[in-house]
Amino acid sequence: MRVLMLVTSDVAGDSRVVREASTLAAAGHAVHVIGRGVPSGWQPPAGVTVSSVDAGTGLRRDRGTSEPSADPGGQPSALPAGSPVRRALPPHLRAARWALLPRHNATVLARFTAGAAADAAGRDADVVHAHDFNTLALATRLAEAKQARLVYDTHEFWSGRPRVGRPTPYAARRDLAAERALGARADAVITVGPGVAGLLRQEFGWEHVTVVRNSFPLPETPYALPDAPTGAVYAGRMAPYRELETVADAARRLEGLRLTAIGPADPTWLATFEPGPLEVRPALPLPEAEQMIAERGLALVTHSARWVNHRVALPNKLFLAVRVGVPVVATDVDELAGVVRQHGLGTLYAPGDAVGLARAVREAVERWPELVAAVRAAQPALSWDVDAAALLSVYRALERG
Predict the structure, then answer these.
(1) Which residues form the Glycosyltransferase subfamily 4-like N-terminal domain (predicted)?
(2) N or C end of the chain, less CB within 10 A?
């Protein structure tokens, strides 16, 4: 089938979009992705074409050879080269940013939607695949106009996401009602884990939900690991509610172990972050990030328990650690903790507890051979082979329909 994907990320750093698109292309579907701000020079996977909307000035097209970054969430803003730590904005500018952020986000989305609609107008499609709620309304209109099937692929429980700008209760209620109505009209709904799927069924009454996790393909050759861990790596977006303040505090208590955070960052949050001995680095190409995780021997999989979306999340960082074959030190939060316990993937600590996090790191070091064996045993069940099969089953059902 001809598949038209819509996503407001830069595609290149969005590992979920890239994996799904390449899997569908390998199965014989023709996949085109419309993204936002796709890096100049990025080369999409074989069988996949990409066009890019510039949300500021209109549409442009990009091709090239850069690699996905170490931010599995696919956020477009990356840290500058060199030291990523910035000076904090004055209080009045921080307040202005907080107040104006919702308006800015709405403006950027409106520009993307207009540009993506113009790009999609001349494209034929049998399936329109909407990545996240912010593309769902446009995808619904395109599917109706093209008489195509509609797939809603929600990467999180949208209404339970962390909020960092001014509260917008009216817009939140409007979006919730729209998601409930438009998702019910979709021919299929895909999401990232059983927890989110359960909420979608419970809150919206949807029964057409399939879980396709943010897992990774297993490497052709297993990564070489050290004899014992030398540190731990957080590989992902750096922003509020990621427990990085707790990680920084714990780093002060872990003499002899090197803790590093790599990935793109929210610049406003970063400007006020005090890393201490925690090494903070810009995003790396994914192979380099994996190599760093393998060399250090442990992965940090952390987020708060404040938001509903965090309580039901299965972060990409968890599956990246499984791919590399290293144990995790993870936050003891509902869905994440359940998978870690089920498969024995590592150790846990309570959110916000730096002493507990340091203790969990030391325990992971002590139990390292046992934990490595458990991760390797869990790799087949937690790999992209399983989730690719789930994705392809959805598309086979669409073809039959």
Answers:
(1) 17-214
(2) C
The answer on 207 and 118 residing in a single domain is: yes
Determine the Cα–Cα distance for residues 222 and 38; give it in Å rounded to an integer. 31
Are 350 and 395 within one domain?
no
Q: Do 319 and 246 share a structural domain?
A: yes
66's tokens:
């850069």
d(CA 3, CA 150): 10
**Can you give the residue range of the structural domain that contains 355?**
231-378
Give the chain's domain count: 2
* pLDDT digit string (tens) for the chain, length 401 residues: 999 999 999 999 899 999 999 999 999 999 999 999 999 889 999 999 999 998 654 334 433 333 344 444 443 333 333 345 455 556 656 666 656 666 767 788 889 999 999 999 989 999 999 999 999 999 999 999 999 999 999 999 878 776 766 666 677 788 889 999 999 999 999 999 999 999 999 999 999 999 999 999 999 999 999 999 999 999 999 999 999 999 999 999 999 999 999 999 988 888 889 999 999 999 998 999 999 999 999 999 999 998 888 899 999 999 999 999 999 999 999 999 999 999 999 999 999 999 999 999 999 999 999 999 999 999 999 999 999 999 999 999 999 97
Task: With beta carbons less than 8 A apart as the criterion, state whether 289 and 333 touch.
Answer: no
DSSP secondary structure code for residue 158 in this structure: G
Instruction: Report the CATH number that the domain containing residue 339 is assigned in CATH.
Output: 3.40.50.2000
Tokens of 69: 């970054």
Say whether both 78 and 156 belong to one domain: yes
As a whole number of angstroms, the distance between CA 34 and CA 53 comes to: 7
Pair 161, 285 in one domain: no
Degrees to nearest 5, angle at CA 139 with 134 and 141: 120
The dihedral sign for the CA sequence 308, 311, 315, 317: positive
Amino acid at 397: A
89 assigned to some structural domain: yes
205, 250: one domain: no
d(CA 21, CA 287): 19
Cβ–Cβ < 8 Å for 5, 21: yes
